[in-house]
Amino acid sequence: MQMRFLIKSVSLIICALVTMTLTTVANADAGMDARAGERVYTQCTGCHAPGYNRTGPKHCGILGRPAGGVKNFEYTKAMKNSGIIWTSEALDEFLISPLKMIPGTSMGFVGISSAQERQQLIVYLSQLNENNTLCK
Ligand code: HEC
């Protein structure tokens, strides 16, 4: 009898925990995405930094900027002449497969297959604006 009560209590607790977890996931806000995106960004930091050029151009101010728009960075013609504006949608397509979207780009990165990771990364990138301490 006591054992049954124990099992029932434990399963109730598990139910409550699962519900809490699902609610947390459902409430995932931009802040959580940005933090997750910061982790995804570690795939980029071999070549990029938010605030200064490395092998790749700096990312501060990327959202809404024309491709090839960082003044003192030497882009390929393919990037410079692509006519792309870096909206969220354009970034998403680029990050699936950079070479597919811009044949001839020198960005040697295969792409990110997870739509969720791309979305989180784009939220992170969109917060690299002039209000961000990494961009000052
Ligand atoms: C192996 C080095 C390398 C890695 C890794 C890399 N990039 Fe790049 N990236 C570059 C280079 C080089 C360019 C310039 C390409 C050109 O001129 O064709 C570039 C260009 C870009 C551009 C266009 C910028 C502009 O100003 O027009 C974006 C956006 C970008 N990278 C995002 C990313 C993101 C996000 C990641 C991580 C998921 C990443 N890159 C990983 C090297 C890299």
Please tell me the overall pLDDT: 91
How many helical stretches?
A: 6
Strand content: under 5%
Output the CATH topology: Cytochrome Bc1 Complex, Chain D, domain 2
Q: pLDDT under 50 segments (min length 5)?
A: none
Q: How helical, in percent, are the residues?
A: 40-55%
What is the straight-line distance between the termini?
66 Å
What gyration radius follows from the Cα positions, in whole Å? 21 Å
Main sheet? Answer: none
User: Which cofactor or ligand species appear?
Assistant: heme C
Count of all domains: 1
Task: Just give the CATH class.
Answer: Mainly Alpha
Q: Could you state the CATH homologous superfamily?
A: Cytochrome c-like domain
User: What structural class do the secondary elements suggest?
Assistant: mainly alpha
> Got a strand count?
0
Describe the protein's architecture and organization.
This protein has 136 residues and is mainly α. The chain has one domain (32-135): Cytochrome c-like domain (Cytochrome Bc1 Complex, Chain D, domain 2). Helix content is 48%, strand content 0%. The protein has 6 helices and no strands. It has helices at 2-26, 30-40, 77-80, 88-96, 98-101, 115-126. Helix 2 (30-40) crosses helix 6 (115-126). It is elongated. The mean pLDDT is 91. Bound molecules: heme C (HEC). Residues 43-44, 46-48, 55-57, 62, 67-70, 75-76, 78-79, 86, 95, 105-109, 112, 121 line the site of heme C (HEC).
